Records
---
Amino acid sequence: MQIKKNLHIIITVSVAFLVLYAFFAARSLSHELQLTPQWTTSIFQTPQEKNDPSQIQLPFRLGQNMGYFTTDGQITLMESFPFQAAISTTYRTTYAPDSTRIPVYQLYSDRQGISDFHIEEAGFPYICDDRIYILTPGGYGLSQYTKARRLWQFEHSAPITTISSTPSGTAVGYADGMIFIFSATGELLQTFEPGGSTYPIILGTALSPSASQLACVSGIDQQRFVLTQQRNGVNKVVFHTYLEGNLREPVLVQFSQDESKVFYSSAIGIGIVDCTTFANTTIPLKGKVLSIQESHHNNLIAVLTKDKNRYNIYLMEMSGTFIGSFGFQADSAFITIEDGDLFVGRDTFISKINLDIK
């Protein structure tokens, strides 16, 4: 794994996290959080020769490079792309702005350099796990595909601003303030218009895993967060709150995997809403929220933000109790959590850090 070549990176990361540990341990927590660096590897290492389906392979995208890596630090695939790309745990694709025939590659394919199938439609792909969508040129229409076969398509009079996909359905938000909710087969189940703002654009949308709850951040000038839950088959507003500031860009909204909490980003940080009691906790953070990762093993969440060219990672309990943070300079970064371990990507390196609560 080119240990000698990356020794300086490993030492730097280790020292940084020893300092972080001293900071975290000084905090008053119900349990003690220990951060233990495991490894750091370059994405340009020689890829593992065989794709083993029994190994967990996690997708990454850093700058103009993307691929997969294993939890023990092996790069199984790495490729550079000149224009745009989309990648998930199942599929990946590269495309240009004028693409009319989009090649798609499967994770465990043995077809070296040859696409597994093509989507014969112009547009921009969005991939979530094993679900593939194409946004039509102009941004007014959406199609969902299962491999090369189109499942459904939908057109609206305003541009799409946000998409949320789960195995149970899809929610699509538009610039005119409308949200359309579709079943897993593409049946239009409901239209929803949060309203309440001078300019009713949808900035962020999340559909819960079971599709029984919908949350969104909407509007400019009295921007607000809205949570709905199904009542007799129809989503009804059960909680809303006006937000400080007025973001004018897409924002992250995300349900916890057990649907007990919903997270949303705002101009000052993130909010955490309890989906039963509707208690709302706000945590101030620096920068734009890019990713929220959840750890079932220790009831933690990690939040990645970007403030100019500085990335910050915040750790907190699911209840909203802030634990600590650290940051670094980079051109690109990502975080993901798997089996209680935090994986941090930074430009051309990926590191594994064990999160252990005792």
---
Amino acid sequence: MPTTPFDPSHESNRPGYLRRASGSMAAGHPPVPVRGNASARPVRPVPPTEPRAVDSITAPQRGDWLFTCRPGAEDDVEDELRAIRMSPVVLQAGLVMAKGITEKGKRVPPTALHGLIFARQAVPVQRLSELRGLDPAAAAKHIVDGICRDLKDRPLAVQVFAADSESGKQLAGRCSALHAALMHELAAGGFSVAANGPAAHSEGGQLLMVCLLSFDQAVVGALLSSAALSLHPGGILRVRRSHDAPSRSASKLSEALAWLGHGPQGGESCVDLGAAPGGWSQVLAERGCSVIAVDTGRLAAGLSRRIQHVRQNAFDYAPDESVDWLCCDMAYRPLEVAGLLARWGRRRWARFLVANIKLPMKQRVAMLGRVREILESGGWTGLRARQLYHDRDEVTLFAWRGFGLDTRVQHQSPRIKTETAVPFRAPKRGTAREGRPAAAKPALGARPGKASSARGKPARSSQAGQARGKPARSSQAGTARGKPAGSARGSSRPPRRGR
């Protein structure tokens, strides 16, 4: 029976993506384009690409660096590495390699990499191990025999991982088997093996990192835990959210606080800007904090009683008094959010800051540079940024307001030597201008002028500088007309009052 031209059951009238494969397509011939839409093709499931070994030309060499990142952030890592005069090359999705020598011929120290935002982990390449035809036990013996024996001097945490990509996920079983074999081989060889990265770091240890490029090829490198970008395999810390968490954003804040090594404590006050549906507020309340959740939207039902919901626009909200922590996870334009956070710092409404900044599609590194300038103009210092595992098209920021050190962070453990830095590399410089040590460690929340100046020098007293005819720093110095409180000869007469 003939069919009408508009009969949907006829194959010629179906859209291209709904057509069934014809005999010619099954035989391997290319599909015929649909009339009126030459680019249309039948949709076929694409199997994930198997990880392939790198060739001898692009293979990492001893002295190079291998960086892990979120798939899609390879260009951002390249931009950051070029900014520090390194020559990056993308090996595969989620992996970027760079030479350990800069364009000026200088070797790149690990400290030069601490400012990277989009790189999750940096692996110093010591060797490229060929594991073709080796089972996990033989592969582990091959790796251990090739590493330096001076690794026995410190506790060693073993980390085996692959790229965080679809092809890298196919190596998960190989990573698990190789990790177990390495733990057994190292223990049998007399090495002091730690349970994980944080355990090794607490004893001033190091990380043995094995990154599988393919089933038969691995990059091996060891690094002091204090110099690593992350203490977790590949820079990935998976956080399981509780069953009653209002949203996945709770995992972002939990990972951010683990990355920092410290966070809001019981009894402290927090403001959560853009709180709905309440994921961050719930995490803060579970830590014993009193939380003010600011959002025009509704919060999820059943949240903690420690949370006070203020249904107001975050840009219009002003706290009644200063709080300890400002938390912000707003899906808004990055520069406007940065301006809002800078206003909080400028008005001293909060002492610490944890925020997520949403990123544009292009020029992300340049955008974050502008965000940094805006935050620093508001008095935020000690700024740190990293694209964490649970972040998507965003970056996590941390900073504190004022000058001086965060005294609640243990900067030096008695069991850790000087070359192993503090957990998660908490900021050490307490001045607005890096490179100048703070004169003292003022208490948290102290005004900068009472402890140290912006250049790290001691604050002058009310009589300082009078011999030179400079204005006194005291609140009572000067006349109503703004004249200095003393003459050039240092007269002891009281300042003349204005009319």
---
Amino acid sequence: MFLNKLKRINNNHITTIFKGNFISKFVLVIGGLLLAKYYGSSEYGVYSIYLSIMGIFSIVLGLAQEHQIMLEGNDEDISNNFSASAVISLAVTLISFLLVFIPFSIPKDILFLGIFSGFIYLLTNNAKFLLAKKKLFKLVSVLTITDSVISFLFQVVFVFFKIENGLIIGSLIGFIAAFIAAFYYSGKYFVKPDFKRYFANARTRPEIFKYTYPSTLINALGNNIMPILISLYFIDSLLGVYSLAVKIMSVPLLMISSSIATVYYPKAAEIYNQGKPKAELFAYTKKMSLMNFYIIFALYVLINVVGVPLLQLFFNKNWEHLGLFIFLMSFGYLTRSLINPISDILLIVKKSNVALVFNIYLFLANIAAIFIGKEKGIVYLVGIFSLLLFLGYGFLYFYIMFILRKNESD
């Protein structure tokens, strides 16, 4: 029975994507733990701010244009959307660099590198969507591996040469290497952009810009702003401990969920757009989300029971809250595992307004947690934040299934 299920998964290309994600995230976890130990919690905290800025601007600059690639059915329009989105993102990036001249508590060099990395990352990500659309899943895996492996190698080298901000510079080199590879693989699909045609296609999907982009942007803030907020009220070493805990908990989600999501999105869109029985979309969504949940649940149990004691032996007292933070964040990330692989279903069934409302909740959860945490302490901050994630993602999942079940009975 298990082998038959594995064969079905392999036929859906999930294992192809998973191999790349597994190698990439394995390097990030094992390498990340080693790097965190040798760089120290304070520098790791600064690194997490850079990654947060990169994560936010990869969405700000992208303008949700990956959906223009994934939802298009005509090959010429796919290539045109891919090409036009790159030019538009470049223009938005150049404007965003003006933020460097506005006084912030964040160092200007970190802000500049974060914005630039966001731009490079989103172009690579758009190339992945394009290659997935063309069913070139092995190339998607190659791009995923390139980023993490090259980043890690340079970050290790910079430890020995004691390069300042070695984590940030090494990561940037990895992003650039993945971008060059992405350009090599997807360059033949790049055409001279026909912006008139691009905007004509965009007008047929107003929900992307009316709901999906604002929703995705608020989601990016909700998922990335916490390190920036923590840096305002707590020392860098505590920020480093929190960020490493989040990274450890995020890796199973990124490794498993993104593998499933890369295959789920086009398949679910195909089921919906081709007018197949509505029960098929409900069953497919339920199967994929629960498969992800069961795997993540087993991994989180393993991390807490076996991984945390090993981490306590590996790290020194500067990381003493790491095990507690991992345990607390497990609850919020567990219900998140139900949503991550199927989150695009709301766009497919044209319920992007639901995602927008939820992402506003997610952003407010960050604000609520930081307000309580700055008074009560960082342990309360992490606990409250995880609880709000647990409740929010859990409610969203059951609401999505309710929507699909309702459509099934219509």
---
Amino acid sequence: MRIMITTVSKVGINLMPFFTGALVLLGFFSSCKSNHNSQFSTFNSQLDYVSPVDYEITLAGNFGEPRPWHFHGGIDVKTGNVEGKQIFSIADGYVSRLTINKYGFGNAIYVVHPDGHTSVYCHLQRFAPQYETLLQRTGKDTLSMVFPSTQFPVKAGDLIAISGNTGHSTGPHLHLEIHDTETWVMRDPLKFLGHLIADTVAPQAHSFMAVPMQGVFNGCQDKQTFGFGQPEDKKQRTTWTLSRVFTAWGRVGFALWADDYAQGVHNHYGIRYMQLLVDGREVFRSDVDSIPISCQPEVNEWGDYSHWRKNRVWYMKAYREPRMRLPILHADIHRGIVTFNEERPYRLTFILRDYQNNQATYHFTVQGLRNKSVRLKSNGTLLDDYRLFRQCLWPLKTTKK
């Protein structure tokens, strides 16, 4: 028997040649798109995924929820606010690692699957007997044990652990993560387990934030928030239109405070999919399906972190900051920032969807109103465009645990 024991460890733009042709830029855009798709390919549908518990799954948290300095890296499966629930492997594979820590994941077990993914089960009370026996031999309360692929093979539905409340946990539950085994990129577990979770409730937006950038909104150059005033009714599909008409001139970014929900529970979740349209044209889209570990701190850039510190509310930007590499954000050539330079009504639409395609749509109108204090500048230069495409070509590297 071979067992390896190690201590647990924690886990501008360079000046480049200037491109002088639209075709070259389009070529870079195409390579960016194909590169992303090759690195973030879909999972092997031939591998069957099953529930990690023997009762109906309800969630206390979903993948990608914004937290200070990091995204929530998995789903939190409820265990009835008690410990002692049986935890099962969600697919065929082998147990590759056990960890014990007073912080972080607490007691955790890792299962490698043949489709290129690894599932991680966290905050456990204890492991199944065949693993628990090994730990008792060491007599340590903080360690990591790594196993070869032949030592502990498992089948989907095999018992691997008992749920608990260890590590950095605020109450008994199962925190379940799924990673790309090679790069350790975090995947949304609903890609694999979404068919096991009932959800017929659309996300809801509470309010939007206007962030003037070389512009004014409602005559003000400071960022402002405006509530949608939608009643708290939970439906599968909903459409809401604000009767109030706003005014703007110059360049303005928008952000949204919204939550997702599910029937039968009081929890609220992060937004899987957000889209901003201006006059029916997409200017920004986010799809929180895969997050590289190295991009974790960028949650503070995507969200308005300073506003969160003051109000404990996350406004997620519907535009892309210049330094961001997050591959889950997709913006037009102007980074999603809207330019109001015509005296006419602009129709803005936010679309929210969850993994089960429950959808909420929010419409409001912004009247372009000339303001002498705003000196309109060009929307961008060729160098600005190159910098945008440079973001698409961020190095697909991450820190593997």
